[in-house]
Design brief:
Strand content of chain A: 15-25%
Structural class of chain A: alpha/beta
Number of helices of chain B: 29
Structural class of chain B: alpha+beta
Distance between the termini of chain A: 6 Å
Order of helices and strands of chain A: EHEHEHEHEH
Number of strands of chain A: 5
Oligomer: heterodimer
Strand content of chain B: 15-25%
Shape of chain B: elongated
Largest sheet of chain A: 5 strands, parallel
Amino acid sequence: MAKILIAEDERDIRDLIAFTLRFAGHEVVAVGNGADAVEAAPLEMPDLILLDVRMPRMTGYEACQQIKADPRVQNIPVVFLSAKGQESEMQAGFSVGAAEYLLKPFAPMELSEKVKELLIKFGKP
Amino acid sequence: MVFSDWLGIGLILVVIGAGLWLLARLLLLSMAGGPPSGLQVSPQVEVVQAEESQDAILVVRKGGKIVTLTRRARQAFALDADDVPNLERLARKIRPSETFLSLCAHQGQARLVLSGRLVDALSYCMNIGQNPVMLLTLRFLELAADLESSPKGGGSETLQIFSELTQTMAGSLDFDATLQAVQQSVEKLIPTDFLEITVWDPSSETLAPYRFVGLPGAERKLELSRQRYNLGEGYSGTIARTQAPMLVGNIDLRSDLRPAVDHNEIPIRSYIGVPLLVSNELVGTLELGSLEIEAYQQDDLNLLNLLAGQAAVVIRNAVRYRSEQRRTAEMAGLAQLTQSFSVVRDPKNIYSRLVESILPLIPVEILGFLIYNESNRMLEGQEPFSGLPFQIIELYRASIIPGSAGERTLLNQDVIITENASESEEWENLGLSFLAQAASLHDTVLIPLTSGGRMLGYLQASNHKDGSKVFTHEELRLLMTITNQAAVAIQTAGLYQEPLHLTEDLEKRVEERTTELRREHNNTETLLRIITELSNSLDLDQVINRALTVLNESIGAQQSLIYLSQNKRTYQLGMPLATSRNGGISSIAQDIARWVIQRRAPTLVDDLPVDSRWKNHEAEPVTFHSVVAVPLVLGEEILGALLLLNEQSNSFIVEQINLVEATARQFSITLNNAELFSLIRDQAENLGGMLRTQQMEASRSRAILESVADGVLVTDAANRITLCNASTERILELKADQVLMQPLEQFSGLFERASQTWLQTIQKWSKDPKAYQLETFAERLELDNGRMVAVTLAPVFFRNEFLATVSIFRDITHEVQVDRLKSEFIANVSHELRTPMTSIKGYVEVMLMGVTGQLSPQQERFLKIIKSNTERLNVLVNDILDVSRIESGRLILDMQPTDVSKLAGEVVEEYKRRSRDDGRVINFSLDVGADLPQITADPIRLRQIISSLVNNGYSYTPDEGHVNIKLNADEDKIKVDVKDDGIGISDKDGRRIFERFFRGEDPMVLQTAGTGLGLAISKVLVEMHGGKIWFTSKGVHGEGSTFSFTMPVAKGED
């Protein structure tokens, strides 16, 4: 199973994601904003990072940008999971280095499936 | 009297010479206060008197040969009796010689100096046959002696003045000049405000006043009043009757008599007047007036009286000179007449010509020629013998027996004057007494006709028209002159009888040719006048009337009329010969007009009633006999006819037709011009009216355009700005006057990228109007100042011709702002909705997975309801976001090669899964046509479209129903059909099915979750791909419907 870092300011959703991923057998490190995610990433060295976009202290875009700028963690695939579903917003996510952009609301089973696909894609066990 | 070769000339010379001599003599006599001279003298006496005259008389042939000199002339020039006179020699003795020589060549008068003495020279030209001669009289002037008794002067000064005055007065024989001289002379001696000279006219027994008008001192003008004064009338008449001077100190105090002159005209207050008398014979009066009273004294009257003596003489001389001049002119005329006689070569005509010519000059009842035929010795009256019946003329002959008294009388060549011819001895001798009796000849004169000494016969004049009266001296003189000339003519006629035929023929031809030329000339002149009249004005009636007047005059027509066949209109001028009762033209005239119109040829009718062409009008009254009719031709067209009519028959000749035809051509042109003019004028008025209407329309349109809130900008075919209304100025922040008529390129810098498309479109349309395919250009321009402007552009075509473009500008800055706010709002709301939805959906699904423990069937059902509604909410949010994107124009397609069958398969699988989840039994099927190509499309959006259609099929098809998807290639596009056997769509709903939020009213629809946005979004997406979407349905419940759409296979893709 893999280690996944999630950053989500909404606690309910953070819990839901964490629950879903743990249920799928993954180790989950959950933080409440982008800044914490940037901070946690090199410490935890997760296999995958899931970021919300709109978060306090630091948005997901900025967080992704910093992660991708950090040589220690830049190879960790970053996936956005956001309610912001407009083309421009998705485009912005990809432009800062995201591997995938998933939309809310999501079905937990589908999320698990997607994460599984991505981990395989990026060679994570 | 001796008759010689020179008889003719001599006689005239004597007569005139005697007349002149008399004048000169009377002048001298009266100046010297001598006795009067009788006027009734016979020619025989006068010859002697001329020889005895104190005047020197010369006869000079033109060319300078002196023919005759009187004794007095020889004395004056100091010539001996046997000296041969030579004009140059004489001229050396007289000063100025040139004037003298000039007088010998031309008629005139002058004052000359001969041997230290003043002479008045006077010359006449006498036309005698082919040889004119000059008659020259030299009269010696001597000053009157009685001037010394002048009451005023007594001094030499007055005498001097008198002497000068007399000379001045006598200086001219011209009547007007004489009166002027008298006036000037009088005014030098007596001051006057008014001067009138009256001249006694014995024939009317009245006084003719000659008044000098003008201010004293200035040159006064001579004026002959039409008024005539009778004897005893006014001052003038009284003076003339009493032959006594009159002095009126104050006119107002003399109430019994008024001056003849109108007081209102010249308010004279005092007056003196004297009669002008020559030997108690009245010449006239000389009258002076002053505007002041008592302006004249007895001395003035005396002086005036003295002056009047001189004035009377010169005025009478001038009067006589005037009548003499008239007579000379008359004689010159006669001479001319005779000359013209001499060219008459036919002796038969000569007598009639002579008689015709002489009759008007002599007031006699009987006039004719008695010609002596030497071969048979007969004296015969010649036809025509005016005044004698022809049966008498036939008897008017007498045989002249050799040696008889008759022959002697004849050979004497005497003028035979008698008061009663039947009792005359000479008539008895000639054997004509019986005839004189038969013809009742009373006063008769026989003037011998001689030529070269031969006796040709007599000119006879009998029975004076002015009652029984002896022929006067003047009449005899005239008759003799005529006779001499007639003799020459008769002689010439005889001599030239032989070559007559040759010359006659030639002359006839010359005459004919002359006549022809004259006619041509007249025709040309007439035509010119007519053309001038016709081109004078544009008033057709007026010019035609004037031109017809000219034509009538020159052709001799009494009526002319123009008949126009097209509108039956007529123009008529002159007598109403062919005018019908209703003012039109009579039927026969119409017939004649039609005749020439049909034949396109002119015709001449000499006598209408006998012309066979118009026999059908026999019953009608004949109002005219002669007609010239010509068609009015203009090119190939016949406008009508021109007719000229005359009551008399044979009034026109063939030669006139040319002129009438030429005139008709001018009329045709004029009529045509007039018609064209009126046509053009009407057109101009129409166009003017239309123009005014259009201008009003244009102004109105312009006003409307100016007042619309949207900016309107019009460019013409050359891309220049022709209209820029106030709103455009406001929206684009420019000034109309800076851009009007400027090329559109000026705009290119004003706007950003969007404006380039706009300009390019305008240029494209103007360069190639066919490129326009009913599209409308609509763009948003973002101005430099940040404002947003919507521009709509459309071309203006008129009959396939590109005229202009119209651009409409609308400031949409505010709308864009609102739109953006709306989009932001929707985006935010969507986000805020999705966040709780994520929780609900996620946790419900987690629960449904059974992760949180075993669920009761009811719990599971409730959770599924929550899940379904969450999904419905999600679809709604997505649709709203799509609509927002579409409205704001932010929806951008990500075009890439797309496999439609794969997408359709995914959708089918999704809905199969969903139907299983929902527990519904719906049969989905997918039919993919052979060789279905890949297309270029946005796969996400294409999937959205197919999904939306399948969703509808799924939602509105009852359980056990079918939803079938068919994919087919159709030429350069693919076609997708989604068929269901659901509720179908009614016609009413069908019309609105693609509208947003429209869902119809079927209960099954209403109980099914849906936003009413799916089809609207699908339609937009299909069209954005360049495809079409539609549906077919029978509108019957249960028979379902088919939604179809096409999408182009992009080029280069198979």
